[in-house]
Specification:
4 strands, 4 helices, mainly alpha, two-stranded antiparallel sheet
Length: about 120
């Protein structure tokens, strides 16, 4: 049976100057885990990624994986309805602390493309 994660704030706080540094580091590590698509480096029955990240920090198995940047380009033409590539609508995901801010323009652009297809 895999071990059950039991963490206390005191255990994790020893590794950081303050709780804000701990939280910011855990957020960055969780984002990296999601963007890289990697599994947790600790064995547990828990499926909560936040708890898994905290356990990785506690066990010293916290490290950032390299993110491979991919480019997804999609736009449809009205003439034949088939998809074509267009450099104007390139979506390059960012893997920073503020990744959600960078994705918003792409959502609007995709919405415009879909609205054009429907009309």
């Amino acid at each position: 049976m895999e071990k059950k994660i039991t963490l206390t704030n005191e255990e994790l706080s020893k590794k950081f100057k303050n709780n804000f540094d701990l939280v910011n580091y855990a957020i960055s590590l969780a984002e990296n885990m999601i963007y890289s698509g990697r599994d947790a480096r600790v064995k547990s029955d828990v499926q909560n990624r936040a708890m898994l990240v905290l356990e990785e920090i506690n066990e010293g198995k916290d490290q950032f994986d390299q993110i491979v940047e991919t480019t997804i380009v999609v736009q449809s033409t009205k003439q034949d309805g088939r998809l074509r590539l267009d450099d104007e609508n390139v979506f390059k995901p960012t893997h920073h602390h503020s990744a959600m801010e960078e994705k918003a323009p792409e959502r609007r652009r995709a919405r415009v493309v879909l609205e054009e297809e429907l009309t």
